[in-house]
Amino acid sequence: MYGKKVSTIHEMKPQNSPKISNIFRSNFNFCYYTGHCPFKITPYLSQSSGLFSKLVCGITFLLAFMKKISKLLLQLRRSHGQNPIDYIFTLKSAVSVVTIVNLYYIVFKMGKEIQNLLLHLGHMQSKNCWNISKIWDWRLKMVCWLPFLYSLGMVSQIYAIYEGIMTTLPPRQSLIFETNFHQSYANFMTTQMTNSTTVSIYPGYLDTFLGLVDILSSIFRMHVAYDVDYLLFTVALGLWVPCKYFSELLKDVGNKDASAILEMFDDLTIYLGLLNEIFSGLVVSNVVDVVLYYSIHLMDLVIVPSIVDRAALTTSILFTVGTFYFAAESCATVGFSSVWLRNWGNE
After folding, report:
1. Do the beta carbons of residue 244 and residue 332 sit within 8 Å?
2. How far is CA 152 from CA 48, 177, 238, 324, in A?
3. What is the domain range of residue 45?
4. Structurally, how many domains does the chain consist of?
5. Rounded to 10 degrees, what is the CA torsion of 248, 249, 252, 256?
6. Is the pTM higher than 0.90?
7. Rounded to 5, what percent of the chain is helix, strand, coil?
8. Can you name the residues that pair with 81 across neighbouring β-strands?
9. Is residue 179 left, alpha or beta, with left meaning phi > 0 and alpha meaning psi from -120 to 50?
10. How confident is the model at residue 197 (pLDDT cuts 50, 70, 90)?
11. Pair 154, 32: CB distance under 8 Å
12. Contacts (Cβ under 8 Å, ≥6 apart) of 120
Protein backbone atom coordinates (compact mmCIF):
# COMPACT_ATOMS: atom_id res chain seq x y z
CA MET A 1 0.00 0.00 0.00
CA TYR A 2 2.70 2.41 -0.82
CA GLY A 3 1.66 5.62 -2.46
CA LYS A 4 2.71 9.09 -3.25
CA LYS A 5 2.90 11.98 -0.87
CA VAL A 6 -0.27 14.06 -1.13
CA SER A 7 0.11 16.72 1.52
CA THR A 8 2.78 18.15 3.75
CA ILE A 9 2.39 20.29 6.83
CA HIS A 10 5.84 21.70 7.17
CA GLU A 11 9.40 20.51 7.10
CA MET A 12 10.53 19.45 10.51
CA LYS A 13 12.94 16.77 11.55
CA PRO A 14 11.33 13.81 13.31
CA GLN A 15 12.52 13.28 16.85
CA ASN A 16 12.65 10.14 18.97
CA SER A 17 11.17 11.95 21.95
CA PRO A 18 7.58 11.14 22.95
CA LYS A 19 5.07 13.28 21.09
CA ILE A 20 1.29 13.53 21.11
CA SER A 21 1.27 13.09 17.33
CA ASN A 22 2.68 9.56 17.76
CA ILE A 23 -0.71 8.48 19.10
CA PHE A 24 -2.47 9.40 15.86
CA ARG A 25 0.41 8.19 13.67
CA SER A 26 0.26 4.74 15.22
CA ASN A 27 -3.49 4.53 14.83
CA PHE A 28 -3.92 5.68 11.25
CA ASN A 29 -0.76 3.86 10.10
CA PHE A 30 -1.89 0.58 11.64
CA CYS A 31 -5.27 0.91 9.95
CA TYR A 32 -3.49 1.80 6.70
CA TYR A 33 -1.40 -1.37 6.64
CA THR A 34 -4.41 -3.52 7.58
CA GLY A 35 -6.45 -2.04 4.73
CA HIS A 36 -8.90 0.09 6.72
CA CYS A 37 -7.50 3.57 6.09
CA PRO A 38 -6.60 5.06 2.68
CA PHE A 39 -3.68 7.12 4.00
CA LYS A 40 -0.81 6.94 6.45
CA ILE A 41 0.93 9.66 8.43
CA THR A 42 4.66 10.14 7.95
CA PRO A 43 7.15 11.18 10.69
CA TYR A 44 6.90 14.69 9.26
CA LEU A 45 3.14 14.73 10.01
CA SER A 46 2.13 14.60 6.36
CA GLN A 47 -0.51 12.37 4.80
CA SER A 48 0.65 9.80 2.25
CA SER A 49 -1.74 7.86 0.07
CA GLY A 50 -2.13 6.16 -3.28
CA LEU A 51 -4.72 4.67 -5.61
CA PHE A 52 -4.02 1.09 -4.50
CA SER A 53 -4.47 1.87 -0.81
CA LYS A 54 -7.76 3.67 -1.54
CA LEU A 55 -8.98 0.72 -3.60
CA VAL A 56 -8.13 -1.84 -0.90
CA CYS A 57 -9.71 0.32 1.80
CA GLY A 58 -12.84 0.83 -0.30
CA ILE A 59 -13.23 -2.92 -0.89
CA THR A 60 -12.74 -3.60 2.83
CA PHE A 61 -15.44 -1.13 3.81
CA LEU A 62 -17.80 -2.38 1.09
CA LEU A 63 -17.55 -6.01 2.22
CA ALA A 64 -17.87 -5.12 5.91
CA PHE A 65 -20.88 -2.91 5.15
CA MET A 66 -22.52 -5.71 3.13
CA LYS A 67 -22.17 -8.12 6.03
CA LYS A 68 -23.58 -5.64 8.56
CA ILE A 69 -26.53 -4.80 6.31
CA SER A 70 -27.28 -8.48 5.64
CA LYS A 71 -27.17 -9.24 9.36
CA LEU A 72 -29.55 -6.36 10.08
CA LEU A 73 -31.99 -7.47 7.36
CA LEU A 74 -31.86 -11.05 8.62
CA GLN A 75 -32.77 -9.94 12.13
CA LEU A 76 -35.55 -7.67 10.87
CA ARG A 77 -37.11 -10.62 9.04
CA ARG A 78 -37.16 -12.70 12.20
CA SER A 79 -40.24 -12.61 14.39
CA HIS A 80 -39.66 -10.61 17.56
CA GLY A 81 -41.42 -12.19 20.51
CA GLN A 82 -41.64 -10.91 24.03
CA ASN A 83 -37.94 -11.45 24.69
CA PRO A 84 -36.34 -7.94 24.85
CA ILE A 85 -32.98 -9.38 23.78
CA ASP A 86 -34.37 -9.85 20.25
CA TYR A 87 -34.97 -6.12 20.00
CA ILE A 88 -31.54 -5.34 21.48
CA PHE A 89 -29.85 -7.52 18.84
CA THR A 90 -31.72 -5.72 16.06
CA LEU A 91 -31.02 -2.27 17.48
CA LYS A 92 -27.36 -3.10 17.91
CA SER A 93 -27.10 -4.25 14.30
CA ALA A 94 -28.65 -0.96 13.16
CA VAL A 95 -26.26 1.09 15.29
CA SER A 96 -23.30 -0.95 13.95
CA VAL A 97 -24.27 0.11 10.44
CA VAL A 98 -24.24 3.76 11.54
CA THR A 99 -20.83 3.24 13.19
CA ILE A 100 -19.18 1.87 10.06
CA VAL A 101 -20.69 4.70 7.99
CA ASN A 102 -19.24 7.23 10.45
CA LEU A 103 -15.82 5.57 10.26
CA TYR A 104 -15.94 5.59 6.46
CA TYR A 105 -16.84 9.29 6.51
CA ILE A 106 -13.85 10.06 8.76
CA VAL A 107 -11.17 8.24 6.73
CA PHE A 108 -12.51 9.16 3.27
CA LYS A 109 -14.26 12.51 3.67
CA MET A 110 -12.51 14.31 6.53
CA GLY A 111 -8.98 14.45 5.18
CA LYS A 112 -8.92 18.25 5.44
CA GLU A 113 -10.04 18.19 9.08
CA ILE A 114 -7.44 15.52 9.94
CA GLN A 115 -4.86 17.64 8.16
CA ASN A 116 -5.82 20.62 10.32
CA LEU A 117 -5.43 18.45 13.43
CA LEU A 118 -1.95 17.37 12.33
CA LEU A 119 -1.06 20.96 11.50
CA HIS A 120 -2.07 22.12 14.96
CA LEU A 121 -0.20 19.23 16.62
CA GLY A 122 2.92 20.16 14.66
CA HIS A 123 2.47 23.77 15.80
CA MET A 124 2.12 22.70 19.44
CA GLN A 125 5.09 20.33 19.35
CA SER A 126 7.32 23.00 17.85
CA LYS A 127 7.02 24.86 21.16
CA ASN A 128 9.29 23.96 24.04
CA CYS A 129 6.39 24.29 26.49
CA TRP A 130 4.69 21.23 24.92
CA ASN A 131 7.76 19.00 25.26
CA ILE A 132 6.26 15.89 26.88
CA SER A 133 9.70 14.46 27.71
CA LYS A 134 10.22 17.20 30.32
CA ILE A 135 7.46 15.92 32.58
CA TRP A 136 8.21 13.42 35.34
CA ASP A 137 5.06 11.35 34.81
CA TRP A 138 6.19 8.10 33.11
CA ARG A 139 2.62 7.34 31.97
CA LEU A 140 2.57 10.35 29.63
CA LYS A 141 5.84 9.26 28.04
CA MET A 142 4.79 5.62 27.69
CA VAL A 143 1.49 6.29 25.89
CA CYS A 144 3.34 8.57 23.44
CA TRP A 145 5.96 5.90 22.70
CA LEU A 146 5.45 4.36 19.25
CA PRO A 147 6.51 0.76 20.13
CA PHE A 148 3.98 0.71 22.97
CA LEU A 149 1.22 2.05 20.72
CA TYR A 150 2.01 -0.41 17.93
CA SER A 151 2.02 -3.30 20.41
CA LEU A 152 -1.52 -2.33 21.46
CA GLY A 153 -2.53 -2.34 17.82
CA MET A 154 -0.98 -5.79 17.35
CA VAL A 155 -2.98 -7.19 20.26
CA SER A 156 -6.16 -5.69 18.83
CA GLN A 157 -5.51 -7.11 15.35
CA ILE A 158 -4.62 -10.61 16.61
CA TYR A 159 -7.98 -10.91 18.30
CA ALA A 160 -9.70 -9.28 15.32
CA ILE A 161 -8.30 -12.01 13.05
CA TYR A 162 -9.38 -14.73 15.47
CA GLU A 163 -12.88 -13.29 15.93
CA GLY A 164 -13.21 -12.74 12.19
CA ILE A 165 -12.40 -16.38 11.41
CA MET A 166 -14.75 -17.64 14.11
CA THR A 167 -17.64 -15.62 12.65
CA THR A 168 -17.17 -17.45 9.33
CA LEU A 169 -17.83 -20.81 11.00
CA PRO A 170 -20.88 -22.36 12.62
CA PRO A 171 -22.55 -21.62 14.95
CA ARG A 172 -21.60 -17.92 14.66
CA GLN A 173 -21.71 -17.65 10.88
CA SER A 174 -24.16 -15.28 9.21
CA LEU A 175 -24.25 -16.00 5.49
CA ILE A 176 -25.17 -13.66 2.68
CA PHE A 177 -25.06 -16.43 0.06
CA GLU A 178 -25.58 -20.20 0.41
CA THR A 179 -22.57 -21.65 -1.43
CA ASN A 180 -20.80 -24.97 -1.70
CA PHE A 181 -17.49 -23.14 -1.38
CA HIS A 182 -18.35 -21.83 2.08
CA GLN A 183 -19.62 -25.26 3.15
CA SER A 184 -16.33 -26.84 2.07
CA TYR A 185 -14.40 -24.10 3.87
CA ALA A 186 -16.38 -24.64 7.09
CA ASN A 187 -15.83 -28.42 6.90
CA PHE A 188 -12.11 -27.90 6.42
CA MET A 189 -11.73 -25.35 9.23
CA THR A 190 -13.71 -27.43 11.73
CA THR A 191 -11.87 -30.62 10.63
CA GLN A 192 -15.13 -32.51 10.48
CA MET A 193 -17.74 -33.32 7.89
CA THR A 194 -21.30 -32.27 8.55
CA ASN A 195 -24.36 -34.23 7.48
CA SER A 196 -25.98 -31.10 6.05
CA THR A 197 -25.32 -30.26 2.43
CA THR A 198 -25.70 -26.86 0.84
CA VAL A 199 -27.61 -26.75 -2.42
CA SER A 200 -26.03 -23.90 -4.33
CA ILE A 201 -27.98 -22.15 -7.07
CA TYR A 202 -24.81 -20.57 -8.49
CA PRO A 203 -22.52 -21.95 -11.21
CA GLY A 204 -19.06 -23.14 -10.16
CA TYR A 205 -17.00 -20.00 -10.65
CA LEU A 206 -19.72 -17.73 -9.20
CA ASP A 207 -20.20 -20.08 -6.25
CA THR A 208 -16.50 -19.80 -5.42
CA PHE A 209 -16.51 -16.02 -5.77
CA LEU A 210 -19.61 -15.48 -3.63
CA GLY A 211 -18.37 -17.92 -1.00
CA LEU A 212 -15.10 -16.00 -0.81
CA VAL A 213 -17.02 -12.72 -0.52
CA ASP A 214 -18.98 -14.19 2.39
CA ILE A 215 -15.83 -15.27 4.22
CA LEU A 216 -13.92 -12.03 3.66
CA SER A 217 -16.90 -9.85 4.58
CA SER A 218 -17.20 -11.63 7.94
CA ILE A 219 -13.49 -11.18 8.64
CA PHE A 220 -13.45 -7.52 7.58
CA ARG A 221 -16.56 -6.80 9.65
CA MET A 222 -14.72 -7.88 12.80
CA HIS A 223 -11.56 -6.05 11.75
CA VAL A 224 -13.50 -2.81 11.38
CA ALA A 225 -15.17 -3.33 14.77
CA TYR A 226 -11.81 -3.80 16.50
CA ASP A 227 -10.33 -0.87 14.56
CA VAL A 228 -13.08 1.40 15.89
CA ASP A 229 -12.30 0.27 19.46
CA TYR A 230 -8.58 0.88 18.93
CA LEU A 231 -9.19 4.20 17.18
CA LEU A 232 -11.35 5.62 19.96
CA PHE A 233 -9.01 4.28 22.63
CA THR A 234 -6.06 6.10 21.07
CA VAL A 235 -8.19 9.23 20.56
CA ALA A 236 -8.98 9.13 24.28
CA LEU A 237 -5.23 8.84 24.94
CA GLY A 238 -4.59 11.74 22.58
CA LEU A 239 -7.12 13.74 24.57
CA TRP A 240 -5.75 12.71 27.98
CA VAL A 241 -2.04 13.34 27.38
CA PRO A 242 -2.12 17.13 26.71
CA CYS A 243 -4.82 17.69 29.35
CA LYS A 244 -2.82 15.80 31.98
CA TYR A 245 0.41 17.47 30.93
CA PHE A 246 -1.15 20.93 31.18
CA SER A 247 -2.60 20.22 34.63
CA GLU A 248 0.81 19.03 35.84
CA LEU A 249 2.38 22.28 34.65
CA LEU A 250 -0.22 24.30 36.55
CA LYS A 251 1.03 22.75 39.79
CA ASP A 252 4.32 24.58 39.25
CA VAL A 253 2.90 27.71 37.69
CA GLY A 254 4.95 29.97 39.94
CA ASN A 255 7.93 29.52 37.64
CA LYS A 256 5.97 30.03 34.44
CA ASP A 257 5.16 33.14 32.48
CA ALA A 258 1.46 34.00 32.56
CA SER A 259 1.32 34.61 28.81
CA ALA A 260 2.87 31.17 28.16
CA ILE A 261 0.25 29.47 30.33
CA LEU A 262 -2.60 31.26 28.55
CA GLU A 263 -1.09 30.44 25.18
CA MET A 264 -0.94 26.75 26.11
CA PHE A 265 -4.57 26.86 27.21
CA ASP A 266 -5.52 28.38 23.85
CA ASP A 267 -3.59 25.62 22.08
CA LEU A 268 -5.41 23.01 24.15
CA THR A 269 -8.82 24.56 23.46
CA ILE A 270 -8.23 24.58 19.71
CA TYR A 271 -6.95 21.01 19.85
CA LEU A 272 -10.05 19.79 21.69
CA GLY A 273 -12.28 21.52 19.17
CA LEU A 274 -10.51 19.80 16.27
CA LEU A 275 -10.87 16.39 17.93
CA ASN A 276 -14.55 16.99 18.55
CA GLU A 277 -15.11 18.07 14.95
CA ILE A 278 -13.61 14.84 13.58
CA PHE A 279 -14.66 12.14 16.02
CA SER A 280 -17.87 13.31 17.71
CA GLY A 281 -20.22 11.39 15.39
CA LEU A 282 -18.24 8.16 15.72
CA VAL A 283 -18.10 8.50 19.50
CA VAL A 284 -21.89 8.81 19.85
CA SER A 285 -22.73 5.78 17.70
CA ASN A 286 -19.94 3.70 19.25
CA VAL A 287 -21.06 4.45 22.82
CA VAL A 288 -24.58 3.23 21.98
CA ASP A 289 -23.11 0.21 20.18
CA VAL A 290 -20.90 -0.69 23.14
CA VAL A 291 -23.70 -0.36 25.68
CA LEU A 292 -25.97 -2.62 23.62
CA TYR A 293 -23.20 -5.16 22.98
CA TYR A 294 -22.16 -5.60 26.61
CA SER A 295 -25.75 -5.69 27.79
CA ILE A 296 -25.96 -8.96 25.83
CA HIS A 297 -22.46 -10.42 25.94
CA LEU A 298 -20.97 -9.43 29.29
CA MET A 299 -21.95 -12.74 30.87
CA ASP A 300 -19.96 -14.54 28.16
CA LEU A 301 -16.92 -14.03 30.40
CA VAL A 302 -18.41 -16.71 32.63
CA ILE A 303 -20.52 -18.76 30.22
CA VAL A 304 -18.19 -19.20 27.23
CA PRO A 305 -15.96 -22.26 27.74
CA SER A 306 -13.21 -21.20 25.32
CA ILE A 307 -10.28 -19.45 27.00
CA VAL A 308 -9.39 -17.68 23.74
CA ASP A 309 -12.93 -16.32 23.42
CA ARG A 310 -12.77 -15.06 27.00
CA ALA A 311 -9.39 -13.43 26.32
CA ALA A 312 -10.79 -11.69 23.21
CA LEU A 313 -13.80 -10.40 25.15
CA THR A 314 -11.55 -9.29 28.02
CA THR A 315 -9.34 -7.37 25.56
CA SER A 316 -12.39 -5.61 24.12
CA ILE A 317 -13.59 -4.72 27.61
CA LEU A 318 -10.18 -3.32 28.57
CA PHE A 319 -10.09 -1.12 25.46
CA THR A 320 -13.62 0.10 26.16
CA VAL A 321 -13.00 0.77 29.86
CA GLY A 322 -9.72 2.50 29.00
CA THR A 323 -11.48 4.72 26.48
CA PHE A 324 -14.12 5.81 28.97
CA TYR A 325 -11.56 6.28 31.76
CA PHE A 326 -9.14 8.47 29.81
CA ALA A 327 -11.97 10.50 28.26
CA ALA A 328 -13.60 11.08 31.66
CA GLU A 329 -10.32 12.06 33.32
CA SER A 330 -9.56 14.43 30.45
CA CYS A 331 -12.89 16.19 30.92
CA ALA A 332 -12.33 16.46 34.66
CA THR A 333 -8.81 17.80 34.10
CA VAL A 334 -9.99 20.43 31.61
CA GLY A 335 -12.71 21.52 34.02
CA PHE A 336 -10.22 21.82 36.86
CA SER A 337 -7.77 23.74 34.66
CA SER A 338 -10.49 26.19 33.58
CA VAL A 339 -11.52 26.88 37.17
CA TRP A 340 -7.89 27.17 38.26
CA LEU A 341 -7.06 29.68 35.51
CA ARG A 342 -10.18 31.69 36.27
CA ASN A 343 -9.24 31.93 39.96
CA TRP A 344 -5.63 32.65 39.08
CA GLY A 345 -6.69 35.49 36.80
CA ASN A 346 -8.76 37.06 39.59
CA GLU A 347 -5.85 37.14 42.02
Report:
1. no
2. 23, 35, 14, 17
3. 4-346
4. 1
5. 180
6. no
7. 75, 5, 25
8. none
9. beta
10. low
11. no
12. 267, 270, 271, 274
